Amino acid sequence: MIKNLLCKKIYPYYNSGMKYPNKNSIFFFLIPVLTFLLIFSIIPALMAFSISFFKINFFENSEFIGLKNFVKLFSDKYFYFTLINSLIYLLITPVLTLLSLSLAMLIKEKQSGQEFYRTIYFIPVVTPIIIAGIIWRYIFNEDSGILNYTLNLFFNQKINWLSSYPENILSVMVVTIWRGFGYYLVILFAGLMTISREVEEAAILDGAGFFRRLFQIIVPQLKPTITLVLVLSSSSAIKLFTELYILIPGAPLSHKTLVYYLYHQAFEKFDISYGSTIGIVVFLLTAGFSYLNIKLIEKEK
Amino acid sequence: MRITKLIIINLILLCFILIALFPFLWLVSTSLKGSEEIFQFPPKLLPEKLTFKNFIDVWQAIPFGKYYLNSFIVTLFIVIGNLFLGSITGFVLARLNFRFKKLLLFIVIVSIVIPQEMILIPLYLILLNLKLTDNLLGLILPSLVSGFSIFMMRQAFSSIPKEIEDSAIVDGCSLFVLYWKIMLPMTKPSLIALGLLVFIATWGDFLFPLIILRSQENYTLQVGLSYMTGTFVDNFRLIAAGSVLSMLPSILLTIFLSRYFEKGIFSGIK
């Protein structure tokens, strides 16, 4: 009975030769989803802009302060420290992309056990960052960690993996690369499967080496996938937070990143509006780098 | 020539298997060590005496069961929410024409572009107003459906040939039956991949729960484990056991579902 009623509603549209059933009323079914997107994504994004122009008091009325936060930001030395650190972390992006692409090519060449490798490489990806941090903090431990133990054994040396400044950035990068390469590998591998093997085989016959093939044959054909990987990895590099929280919690603010500074200002010093101002910079950076990556790849075409 | 090349390839790939697995195996081995072995120097790769005591102790040392349950509840609701709401909205966007369709698609895409870090503070204020901070519901609601899920499912539904829809309409199918019985099963790889992605992201999420949750009884696993590293400095074996237990679901899901991941993610990208 109900089924018949519903069918009658579609039939007229179908008979009138419409491509898809047209139901304007469907919009009402989508109102819950739309509400969720608006309340928890679109409105907060607009609020992020407005909050940064106000001094937020939890108990009294908020006060309009105009561009004061932005002026403060540009004379704040910790803003520059953390900004520079966040930009340094962008170095992960090319390393990750190249590493994942090379490994994907090797797996493709191997032809057997492809799924096995991809599954194993995917295990670090599903490791929560906190747990990855706990493990690596133990490995990097300066007195009892296995890394310094090995270094001491062979070179009679110790490295302050977590407490000295450039070294701890490197350690965090190692963890991020360890957690990330399997993910980008799967994406790039799927892209590799779509390009034709003929050109590559001809190049192999002509004696082109691995890196020549990588840069002259694979990369030009894989541009859309590589762009995706660049966009994904650079925006996650700028937004680095949890790795620092768990790996180098005691390090001074000048060793941290922009998102950490946001967290520090908003939730440790409770300066909500200044934190929001930093959030806008984070947004502009991720948007900017995504745009830049897409443009760069397009230009090369 | 061919054989040496294969050997080199295998060696490199094997090397990366070791790199990928070593930290994890190290964690498992630590979790099986007794308390006297933990700070042995030089560190030993394998425990001398296997013990499962750490796995029992961790439940008593901290409210580990409560953390686990909290993480489970939050993840369950968010995964189901994204699969259901994401797929039904994706279906409607891919297959039907209606007023404001462009507007809805625009909102979906904008919400994908907005980084979570930027809306963190406003979201906190909104949840504060709704009295949902320090509450699991405050963690679940904002992530119940995401632009990404909708978009990925829209791409999956778009790739189904139109003939199938036509024949369903001729057979007299209702819209919901068309979605639920005919179209949805055809997007299975995307659904599983989306479920896996949402699971990984939610199970491992840290910054948002850290901000929203205040009291210990509401902590999720990640917040709980990180809190534990601050207090149980000397008890690395307990932390290791807790970490192993909290990684178990992710690892099992990966081993069984990873082949769907690639199929699904690519139907989402195209």
Task: Write structural notes for this entry.
The complex is a heterodimer of chains A (301) and B (270). With 301 residues, chain A is mainly alpha-helical. Chain A has 2 domains: 50 residues, no CATH class; 220 residues, MetI-like (MetI-like fold). A two-stranded antiparallel ribbon of chain A has the order 1-2. In chain A, strand 1 and strand 2 form a beta hairpin. In chain A, helix 6 packs across helix 10, helix 6 crosses helix 13 and helix 15 packs antiparallel against helix 16. The radius of gyration of chain A is 25 Å and the shape is globular. Chain B is mainly α and 270 residues long. Chain B has a single domain, classed as MetI-like (MetI-like fold), CATH 1.10.3720.10. In chain B, 76% of the residues lie in helices and 0% in strands. Chain B contains 13 helices and no strands. The radius of gyration of chain B is 23 Å and the shape is globular. The two termini of chain B are 39 Å apart. Chains A and B meet through helix 1, helix 2, helix 3, helix 6 and helix 7 of A and helix 1, helix 3, helix 4, helix 5 and helix 8 of B.
